[in-house]
Specification:
single chain; alpha/beta; Rossmann fold; two-stranded parallel ribbon; about 15% strand; binds nicotinamide-adenine-dinucleotide; binds uridine-5'-diphosphate
Length: about 325
């Protein structure tokens, strides 16, 4: 491995190290994407971030604006695009991700999964680069197998209120797998589970930013249904480490990337309230349609084949997240 590059080695295959000297990150001005841009830059790889700011913001990468190893290209990936110069890896993250966002942008979400994935794959093909798809635990739908293993095909309502996201990602996986099987592309699919941390939008509707901003402001904490539905929350640094481990590995996936520590939404609300030192009351609000009852990743594959596991526990991750939101509220 040369200095100033991400070390890339095909896990378990004895394959040659893959150097990522220059990467394209679609959706790089979003929550997860901006942290991925940071980690790639930390490794010395140069980064081209492609984003149309639908649900992200240039503010998330403003600290990289004067970095000569970072370029920001404002573009909608549902339209074809190209990038000048060599590219070693294309990380495709561009898509609304919060249920609130994909309900507001249903067609844009379907197009990001379909046309956006195709255009990102085509770029990887032209550049002879590896391609990573950021898929999601939503491909398992409201799962009937728990915890979720990669071999589970899922329980998805194809015309329900979450279908624009779930089916777009399932199609994106099919497109990626087909390019690998039939066109010889070098691809990886990671299925990300609920990820949280700094740079989430306070009003993106997801549980963590909503509860944190409510608790900090002393407003009612809005728990959907009876709050007994579960999620397993992964701190963003761990998720990004998993994405990079997958890209380095050459593993085709799919690989679950998430933290198996499962808790109910009511427990999450209580934890956030306590860590915020807040006395905000809980209010129970109607549960959205097709909201999954249970979610927990089986990460056996990621541990054994990528050598990756999350290391940040919930209290530590929530504290870092709360500190970030609190600092912004004060400024
Ligand atoms: P986000 O909304 O913060 O980031 C998505 C980014 O993609 C935004 O910057 C947005 O402007 C950009 N984008 C959307 N459509 C685009 C288009 N057509 N062209 C260019 N840019 C476009 O969401 P996130 O939480 O950072 O999620 C990033 C990726 O990770 C998504 O693909 C999402 O499906 C996946 N994922 C995230 C989670 C999670 O818990 N955060 C879980 C599973 C999967
Ligand atoms: N949720 C909630 N109150 C909120 C926002 C979300 O109780 O203000 C619930 C939501 O109904 C779901 C869980 O928290 O059961 C996680 O929701 P989120 O939108 O964070 O992620 P996803 O549903 O995509 O896992």
């Amino acid at each position: 491995m040369g200095t100033g590059t991400v070390d890339s080695r095909a896990a378990g295959s004895g394959g040659a190290p893959r150097e990522i000297r220059r990467a394209v990150v679609t959706g790089g001005a979003g929550f997860v994407g901006s942290h991925l841009c940071d980690r790639l830059r930390d490794s010395g790889a140069s980064v081209v971030c492609v984003d149309n700011f639908l649900t992200g913001s240039a503010e998330n990468v403003a600290h990289l604006a004067s970095d000569p190893g970072f370029e920001l290209l404002e573009h909608d990936v549902t339209e074809p695009f190209d990038v000048e110069g060599p590219v070693d890896a294309v990380f495709h993250l561009a898509s609304p991700a919060s249920p609130h966002d994909y309900a507001r942008h249903p067609l844009a979400t379907l197009k990001a999964g379909a046309h956006g994935t195709l255009h990102a794959l085509e770029l990887a093909g032209r550049k002879n680069a590896c391609f990573l798809l950021a898929s999601t635990s939503e491909v398992y739908g409201d799962p009937l197998v728990h915890p979720q293993v990669e071999s589970y095909w899922g329980n998805v309502n194809p015309i329900g209120p979450r279908s624009q996201y779930d089916e777009a990602k399932r199609f994106a996986e099919a497109l990626t797998a087909t390019h690998r099987a039939h066109l010889g592309f070098d691809t990886t699919i990671v299925r990300l589970f609920n990820t949280y941390g700094p740079r989430m939008r306070p009003r993106d509707g997801r549980a963590v930013p909503t509860f944190v901003t409510q608790a900090l402001a002393g407003r009612e904490i809005t728990v959907a249904g009876d709050g007994r539905q579960t999620r397993s929350l992964c701190y963003v640094d761990d998720t990004v480490a998993g994405i990079l481990a997958a890209a380095r590995s050459g593993h085709p996936g799919p690989v679950n990337i998430g933290n198996p520590a499962e808790l109910s939404i009511l427990e999450l609300a209580d934890r956030v309230r306590e860590l915020c030192g807040s006395s905000a009351p809980t209010v129970f609000v109607p549960r959205p349609g097709d909201d999954p009852d249970l979610r927990r990743p089986d990460i056996t594959r990621a541990v054994s084949e990528l050598g990756w596991a999350p290391v940040v526990d919930l209290d530590k991750g929530l504290t870092a997240t709360i500190d970030w939101f609190a600092a912004r509220q004060e400024s």
